[in-house]
Structures are given as structure tokens and as C-alpha cells.
UniProtKB/TrEMBL annotation:
Protein name (database record): DNA ligase (ATP)
GO biological process, one term: DNA repair
SUPFAM superfamilies listed in its UniProt record: DNA ligase/mRNA capping enzyme, catalytic domain, Nucleic acid-binding proteins
Lineage: Bacteria, Pseudomonadati, Pseudomonadota, Alphaproteobacteria, Hyphomicrobiales
All copies of domain ATP-dependent DNA ligase family profile, residue ranges: 75-162
Species annotation: Bradyrhizobium brasilense
One GO MF term: ATP binding
Superkingdom of this protein's organism: Bacteria
Length: 270
């Protein structure tokens, strides 16, 4: 089993060729090259005729940690501080590597990104619990453990598992609250089948800029009725459930409500 430290940011798939412009795509296939111009520029230095690299885009702090909320403010297409942390290689010079064992893909990946601004995600072959405890101790999000000789498969599978130090979840924004005209957080929902079920309210994690940006995005989505399948006894400004929020929390109630939640940012890559 191989373990790697878990960075905090949207997954990105980087396609590059010596004869074509570099492109950056989200896991859903959205072209975010304009948002990640720094990453696209860095890719010109990859030592390959063509390649598809899998990784996460992060905004690194001085202490080596990353912060998803800080990254949100960097997604303007002008940032010079974002970095691609590369952890897998799908194609190299026209060759499909997805059936090649993970440790071999990582070896090839390290060769082509070495000496560039793209960071190689190191793997450590040791007991997972020890790695996890160390990651949490130094303030990282967690670890990802993968089967050493596994093939590449899109989506969830049995060959890898992610463990975070705090619980994180992507939840739907159902509405927002104002207290005497001032920002007072957002109402959350969790999808269960075709229904949206109340998942709590988060009022921590916002600064003036993020609160203003959220309110600007949510105003065009305002609706008269709650979007929940079962009405809740809270007053709010309800919206069409279009936007997704990344939320960190300590625990969850039996009813599915998050406890001590903290807003980490919007998930526009999903």
C-alpha cells in the first residue's frame, strides 16, 4: 500500500502536447485553462511530447499546508501562487498507461515533472495509521492510500481510499440568512434520491469578500419557497439548489445535520 499526503483543492487533469496549447480540465471535463493559466504555463516545461497528468491544484502556504478557502480567491486567472500537485500519469507520448501498475506510472511521472514548477506528490510505503496521525499533526487535510500495483480507474473504487483529519462534505446551498441586513450564513441540503434534505446551517468560515461574492451569486437564484422535500422551521432567503459548498465539520447528528460546520468554499469544479 502506498500513502500520499492529501492536498486541498479541486482535482485537475492536465493535457499537454508540444504541438498544441496546454489544457487544464476539472474531473467533470470542464475546461478551466483560463482559471489555471499558471498551471498551463508550467506544463510547457514537462519533459514529454504529450501527456495527461492527474493532480490537484492548490495554493500552498509558507508552512507547507494548503487551504481551500484561500484557493477560492486565486481562481481569477491572474494568480501566480497556485501549483499543480501531480499524483498520476494517464498517457505519455501517445501511450495509454492506465493499465500500467501505479508504482510504474509514478516513476514515469516523476521523470517528466522533475525540475518544473509542477510538484510531484511523493508516496510513502509505510503503515497507514502512522502516516495519517502525522498528517493531522502537521495540519494537513489527510492522506490517500493506494494499492501499489493498481491500475488507473476513474471514480471511486477498491484500489484507493481517502481519510481526512476532519470530516468534509460537498453539500447543496438551499438558502442564506441575513441578520439586520448583515450576512449570517447559508442553509445546507443533502441529496437523497430526488429529494433535498436539510443538513444544517453554517455561519463560520466567511470573510467580507467571500460573503459578498456568495450573496451576489445567490441573489439571481432566489425563490419564494424552500427547496427542501420537508419544510423546516427556519426563516431564510431560499434559492434554487444550484450551487455546491465544501463544508468541514466535527460530527453529524442522527438526523444528518452537520455539527460545528465551517465553510471552506464553493465547489465549482463539480
Amino acid at each position: 500500500m502506498q500513502c500520499r499526503l492529501l492536498a486541498t483543492g479541486p482535482d485537475a487533469r492536465h493535457a499537454c502536447s508540444n504541438r498544441r496549447p496546454r489544457k487544464v480540465f476539472t474531473r467533470r471535463g470542464h475546461d478551466w485553462t483560463n482559471r489555471f493559466k499558471k498551471v498551463a504555463d508550467d506544463a510547457w516545461h514537462i519533459k514529454a511530447g504529450s501527456a495527461i497528468v492527474d493532480g490537484e491544484v492548490v495554493s500552498p502556504a509558507a508552512d507547507g499546508t494548503t487551504d481551500f478557502s484561500v484557493l477560492q480567491n486565486e481562481l481569477k486567472g491572474r494568480s501566480t501562487s497556485i501549483v499543480l500537485v501531480a499524483f498520476d500519469l494517464l498517457y505519455l507520448n501517445g501511450r495509454d498507461l492506465r493499465k500500467v501498475p501505479l508504482y510504474q506510472r509514478k516513476t514515469e511521472l516523476k521523470k517528466i515533472v522533475d525540475g518544473t514548477e509542477i510538484q510531484f506528490s511523493e508516496s510513502f510505503e509505510l503503515e497507514g495509521r502512522e502516516m495519517f496521525e502525522h498528517a493531522c499533526k502537521i495540519g494537513l487535510e489527510g492522506v490517500v492510500s493506494k494499492v501499489r500495483d493498481s491500475v488507473y480507474a476513474s471514480g471511486r473504487g477498491n484500489n484507493w481510499v481517502k481519510k481526512t483529519c476532519a470530516q468534509r462534505e460537498t453539500l447543496t446551498i438551499a438558502g442564506f440568512a441575513l441578520d439586520e441586513g448583515k450576512w449570517d450564513g447559508i442553509y445546507l441540503g443533502r441529496r437523497k434520491g430526488g429529494d433535498l434534505v436539510y443538513a444544517g446551517k453554517v455561519d463560520l468560515g466567511f470573510d467580507k469578500a467571500s460573503a459578498a461574492d456568495l450573496q451576489r451569486r445567490l441573489k439571481p437564484l432566489i425563490r419564494k419557497t424552500q427547496p427542501y422535500a420537508k419544510r423546516i422551521a427556519h426563516k431564510g432567503i431560499w434559492v434554487e439548489p444550484k450551487l455546491l459548498a465544501e463544508v468541514e465539520y466535527r460530527a453529524m447528528s442522527a438526523e444528518g445535520k452537520v455539527r460545528h460546520p465551517f465553510f471552506k468554499g464553493l465547489r465549482e469544479d463539480l
